[in-house]
Write a sequence for this structure.
């Protein structure tokens, strides 16, 4: 009987909602926005893919021409200046022979542009180093959401709560104000069941519309829909929506007027969606200030100057450690490129602690921001959405780590060849390390999202629980007709 | 059927209802008279469990309304002074919805039509949106909702306000039919004439206290009016 009454109320609520203009307007706006957001995401993915293909084509072409040029030089058919000679490892290991570390779009990437428009997906790896962040020093910035592109993650975490509030701010207060609550509560139904039916109806309309439109949009524009990730994505969206509807129910349970409920909910939106993320960002900056890049550059200049002066000593030290690499003749006769490389390596070695410190500060900020996501369901949701899309800090860090180890591999391949003053031919060119990316597995992504899902479940359960507590019989019962 | 035992309600120390003792059996129509603020509506709201009593208890069929609110509401039908309905639905759809909430989700359309006809709503209005109804028409749908509930007790809070004399008289006839069917009726009203006509007992309240109780059959209309005025007038006879 009770379940049947609940179903009847649900049906009535959906009917009542569909009879109001605001619901159709909100629904239409949501559909249009979702369509646009999916389009933005898909365009971003296509752009990234085009960038990768261009880089890979360029690399293949360059390698083909290197190979033929090497043949010609080895056969002594031509002479080239040492600055142009690709058979020299110092030349081949830099711009001429550089390879690209590339990040392919993740399968579900169209759902969030996230950091992907800030991080170059194509990183040239050379002896001069690779910087996967392209010199970008900021970390994942919650405020970036505000200025970022209108992607799905933004739409879900910022705008969807506004729609949820627009539909539910008066879910109980309006029945009281229009006088229907008296007749309703004279029936054998509890106010909790009534509010639950109203909340569930609003949740179901928004959830159904969102999930349906996103599934439709993705299938239409990309022809595929990674089902596993889509299910998790729907879970995140569903729980986030549940949180906002539960919050609206809680505010309604205080028994104030609809107008007041609207104001309170608007303030809560501001608090969770704008103020907390901004506060987290400011706090992270204050607690873990990132040293200025100017400091790094200045120190680099200074170290370079000093090392240049001691170049001979640096070189001698190296060959003391690696006597087997010493070409015929003395250290003084060593090739100028080898010498330049030795200086570069020494400067790099001396700068390492500074770079390390830099990185630790960034890590500190990142850890703090990541931990602070528990302060607001919006941050939890956004983090989970980016993780699922593969455009968050998580996958990016994964990429950066692999770029660094590829860079080390690159260095370890070329350094001995440079010190030994060796020459490369087409055969050696085949042995130059190639890039391969080990992407996160779906399982890892799922495990990364589960804490956020549980957090959202807890928060929405808490909101619904407190609302139910206020809607019990007895007490002041300010909500009563 | 309806029973109040030392039922009291006060708001911030001000008594809205004091030690009400009342028993309304099946087949009785109890009319509560009194000025605005005398405690009539408070009594009805207490029976509906919209508010909690400060002390005492309200019983329906022997069940305490604060302990068994859903069970007691099954046994109660209620017509408020202003019946407010869903304006986007027709009278018929409103009736169907409220009847379903009351547990009667199996009425055929003919039965629902029967309730509307019995409450006096003209047939061509049944499928009209309630948004276009007059107050009297809404009141009639409220009556139909109460009829459809088939409850053993009926709580009425100025139910005839907004009804024209003809409809009001039809309503009185309807109440008497229900009384004969064994329904216990508690009606708060200002309408002395109606109270005299339909009431099996009449109580007069003032400032939260039930001052007197009479059998209207023993009085003529003028006596009843005098009695009412005596008890209701400020500074009237306190005995």
């Amino acid at each position: 009987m009770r379940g049947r009454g609940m179903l009847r109320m649900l049906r009535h609520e959906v009917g009542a909602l569909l009879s109001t203009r605001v619901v159709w307007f909100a629904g239409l706006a949501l559909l249009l926005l979702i369509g646009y957001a999916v389009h933005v995401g898909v365009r971003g993915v296509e752009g990234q893919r085009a960038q990768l293909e261009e880089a890979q084509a360029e690399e293949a072409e360059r390698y083909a021409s290197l190979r033929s040029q090497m043949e010609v030089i080895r056969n002594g058919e031509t002479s080239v200046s040492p600055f142009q000679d690709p058979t020299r490892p110092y030349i081949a290991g830099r711009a001429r022979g550089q390879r690209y570390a590339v990040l392919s779009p993740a399968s579900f990437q169209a759902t969030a542009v996230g950091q992907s428009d800030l991080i170059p997906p194509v990183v040239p790896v050379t002896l001069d180093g690779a910087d996967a962040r392209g010199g970008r020093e900021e970390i994942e910035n919650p405020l970036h959401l505000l200025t970022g592109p209108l992607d799905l993650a933004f739409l879900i975490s910022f705008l969807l709560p506004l729609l949820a509030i627009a539909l539910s701010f008066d879910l109980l207060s309006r029945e009281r104000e229009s006088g229907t609550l008296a007749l309703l509560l004279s029936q054998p139904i509890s106010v909790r069941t009534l509010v639950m039916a109203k909340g569930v109806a609003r949740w179901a309309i928004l959830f159904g519309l969102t999930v349906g439109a996103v599934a439709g949009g993705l299938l239409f524009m990309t022809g595929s829909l990674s089902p596993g990730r889509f299910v998790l994505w729907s879970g995140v969206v569903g729980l986030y929506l549940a949180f906002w509807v539960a919050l609206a129910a809680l505010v309604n349970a205080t028994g104030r007027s609809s107008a007041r409920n609207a104001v309170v909910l608007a303030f809560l939106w501001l608090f969770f969606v704008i103020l907390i993320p901004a506060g987290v960002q400011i706090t992270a900056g204050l607690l873990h200030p990132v040293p200025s890049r100017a400091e790094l550059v200045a120190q680099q200049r200074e170290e370079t100057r000093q090392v240049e002066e001691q170049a001979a000593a640096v070189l001698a030290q190296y060959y003391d450690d690696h006597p087997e690499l010493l070409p015929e003749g003395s250290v003084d006769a060593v090739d100028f490129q080898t010498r330049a490389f030795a200086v570069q390596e020494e400067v790099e070695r001396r700068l390492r602690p500074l770079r390390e410190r830099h990185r630790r500060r960034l890590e500190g900020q990142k850890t703090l921001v990541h931990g602070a996501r528990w302060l607001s369901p919006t941050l939890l949701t956004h983090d989970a959405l980016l993780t699922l899309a593969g455009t968050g800090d998580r996958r990016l860090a994964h990429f950066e780590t692999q770029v660094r180890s590829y860079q080390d591999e690159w260095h370890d391949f070329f350094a001995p060849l440079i010190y030994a003053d060796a020459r490369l031919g087409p055969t050696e060119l085949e042995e130059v390390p190639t890039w391969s990316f080990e992407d996160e597995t779906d399982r890892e992504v799922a495990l990364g999202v589960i804490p956020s899902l549980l957090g959202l479940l807890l928060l929405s359960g808490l909101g619904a629980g407190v609302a139910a507590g206020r809607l019990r019989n007895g007490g002041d019962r300010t909500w009563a007709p | 059927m309806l029973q109040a035992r030392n039922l009291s309600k006060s708001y911030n120390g001000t008594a809205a209802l004091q030690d009400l003792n009342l028993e309304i059996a099946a087949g009785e129509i109890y009319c509560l008279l009194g000025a605005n603020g005398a405690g009539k509506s408070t009594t009805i709201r207490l029976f509906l469990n919209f508010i909690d009593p400060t002390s005492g208890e309200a019983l329906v069929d022997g069940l305490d309304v604060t302990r068994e609110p859903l069970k007691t509401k099954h046994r109660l039908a209620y017509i408020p002074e202003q019946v407010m309905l869903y304006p986007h639905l027709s009278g018929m759809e409103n009736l169907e919805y409220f009847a379903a909430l009351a547990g009667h989700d199996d009425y055929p359309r003919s039965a629902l039509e029967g309730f509307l006809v019995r409450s006096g709503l003209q047939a061509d209005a049944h499928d009209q949106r309630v948004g276009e109804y007059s107050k009297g028409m809404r009141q009639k749908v409220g009556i139909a909702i109460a009829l459809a509930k088939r409850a053993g007790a009926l709580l009425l809070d100025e139910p005839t306000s907004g009804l024209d004399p003809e409809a009001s008289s039809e309503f009185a006839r309807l109440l008497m039919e229900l009384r004969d069917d064994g329904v216990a009726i508690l009606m708060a009203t200002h309408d002395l004439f109606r109270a005299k006509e339909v009431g099996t007992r009449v109580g007069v309240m003032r400032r939260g206290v039930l001052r007197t109780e009479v059998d209207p059959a023993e009085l003529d209309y003028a006596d009843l009016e005098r009695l009412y005025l005596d008890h209701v007038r400020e500074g009237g006879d306190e005995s």
